[in-house]
Amino acid sequence: MTKIRFVKANTFSALAAILSSCAFWAQLGLSSREPLILFVFAAMLFLYRESFNCDQKCILIAAYICGVLFALFSVLGNLEALSDRRAHNLWTLIRFSGLALLYSNILTVIFSKLKDVQLTMDKNEYRNMSARGRIQVFFLCWVPIFLCFGIWWLYEYPGNTSPDSNHQIMQAMGLIPLSSNHPAVSTLMLGFFFNLGMKLFSGDQNAALALYTAFQMLFMSVVFAYLLETLYEARIKKWVIICVLFVYIIYPHHGSYSVTVWKDVMFAGWGTALCVSLWRLILRCRNEMPGSSKNFDLALLYISAMGASLYRNKIYYAFFLLLPLFYMVFRKKNVAAWLMPLIVPIIAIIINGPIFASFDISHNDFIESHSLPAQHIARVIKDGHSLTAKQYELLSKAVDVEAVADTYNANISDPIKALVRSTGDQEYLVTHKGEYTRLWLELGMQYPGAYLRAQIDQTKGYWYPDVNYWSMSNYCEESDVLELVKDRRLPQWWINIFDNVYFYLPSLPFGGIAYSIGTAVWLLIALFALCVVKGMKSELLIYIPVLTIVLTVCIVTPVHAEYRYVYSLFTTLPLLGILPFSHVNCNKAKESA
Description:
Helix content is 69%, strand content 0%. By secondary structure, the chain is mainly alpha-helical. The protein folds into 3 domains: 3-114, no CATH class; 131-363 and 473-478 and 516-592, no CATH class; 366-462, no CATH class. The radius of gyration is 26 Å and the shape is globular. The two termini are 36 Å apart.
């Protein structure tokens, strides 16, 4: 290193370390007399000296884009920090700048270290498997997962339910009309197993529900086992596969959710199968996966895409956006594969439209599908901003304006929706939808700060890590109609272990990070960037469906941190975490892409 470069490196490192230390102090709210800041400064000094040596433009661009994005998330998610201090805007700028530098340089070092890391077997380690061998690997993975989920099934017997679950069960039993609040295919599948169980077990609702949760448990364990078997076929090292196997076994949400009656669980299973089948087809197009089951992988791609489309309403619109990307990856190598984003949405629209219309399915009311704009307007009123007489009159037909401020909850839209239903005229809302759209835009132009704060508070849990919200339950929701009761089938000492360990892990150091949606989203973005750095263009396609789910939730979410809405992120994360390290030769990957 020349003398000039040495001076630049030390000057940059010192200034950046000071700025980042101030940001660290501001973000965590440390005392100005806390000596920990000196150790933080020293650590950052070494970090910046290390990152200064990186001269690879691709790494620097990817790291700084991610770093700025993460810093923006950190600042917006913690706007309360230093809000009572002078020069709040200046400290906000310092916080953003310091964190952007810190995150960017940390990622620069990480990307530099991981750029050449691979987790694939050498030729001497890997042995091509016959169909029988692949089946053996599948069952070696499936049996421990299924047994572990079986323990959860006994612990949660007959399964976990919520008010939404009970509502869907009553629809499945024919006690109340079908509603678009639950995908029709989900309700029909639940009804098939529940009603079958009622016949097999003489009307025992607990046993009937247990039959459905056993089916769901089987489905999820098969998907996870197929992912693990695919890792082996893709020549991933055995110790990595074993680690992923333990993630699916030990991580409590997988066991608990496998026996929880939510459509989001089956959607996550279909979404994971979609990512696995897509990866397999990409590997086959590059002749990097042996075997002759290409048609099976193609069929699974269509089936899983259709399953995901039918289990989450309107998610199939995202496939239209993927069509050009599919064409870029598959082109003439697999015409049937690149046409999937066009064919599946058309079929799903027909099924969800004319076909399910014949079932006389009732649709959600107006406010259910417009809860986020309602939250924006409610925040304007909550913050005490003035309304014109015309604005007030128009809003008064939709809701009791005087009650909005006391009813508004920044983190969940249910209170405002309930207020509109009880005090407003939704028929008027529907017939004058254009006027209310103009009102929403008008208030947004007048009070953008209120809209921004409303949007932050309503979605914060999906992009800011330090948000605490429930994610697991272990009860059967009481109902005046249903006769479902929790009836655990494990010894009490085992029940105590589950109660006192798994459900308190989030409060332990490092434990909470594993449950954080925001942390998982940050990791997803960083892994996507790492694939870009390594030139793995085809693999980027596998991240798009999961990123789309996260973005969709941020647009339409009624709750600020509902884990089940993005559970598919956690089911696919082990695969997405391995993808950047799945090529023996990075240069070959670039050429093949």
